[in-house]
Amino acid sequence: GFPRTLGQAEALDRICELDLVISLNIPFETLKDRLSARWVHPASGRVYNMDFNPPHIQGVDDLTGEPLVQRQDDRPEAVAARLRKYKDAAKPVIELYKSRGILHSFSGTETNKIWPYVYALLSSKIPPILSDEEN
């Protein structure tokens, strides 16, 4: 997400005024497991997740048959360190937006369970765009 640091939040304030901020609270272990299961095809940037979007053949890109790689920062120990660092850096950002009354937090482990609540919030703030047929 963005902004990730107080400095980034302050820079964002200089170019726009936010009226809504969404924070997704996902358990540490869930994030670590998902990121650690991510593998990529370097040439194309295609991303696979071994848990919910695996390649047809393990370790091989579906389209080219070339090997997939796991980025160094997606290895479990690196992910854990990244998440700890993010939590420390993001805390003042969360507090800033909470103090402004514009922070909306959602917790969970599954996108399909969190998304309806996020969608309802966004729908209450942004009028839907109607197609020509609906007008």
Automatic annotation (TrEMBL):
GO molecular function: AMP kinase activity; ATP binding
Name the record gives this protein: Adenylate kinase active site lid domain-containing protein
Domain annotation Adenylate kinase active site lid: ranges: 38-73
Entry-linked InterPro entries: Adenylat/UMP-CMP_kin, Adenylate_kinase_lid-dom, P-loop_NTPase
Transmembrane residue ranges: none
Pfam families reported for this sequence: ADK (PF00406), ADK_lid (PF05191)
CDD domains named among the record's database cross-references: ADK
This protein's UniProt keywords: Kinase, Nucleotide-binding, Transferase
HAMAP family named among the record's database cross-references: Adenylate_kinase_Adk
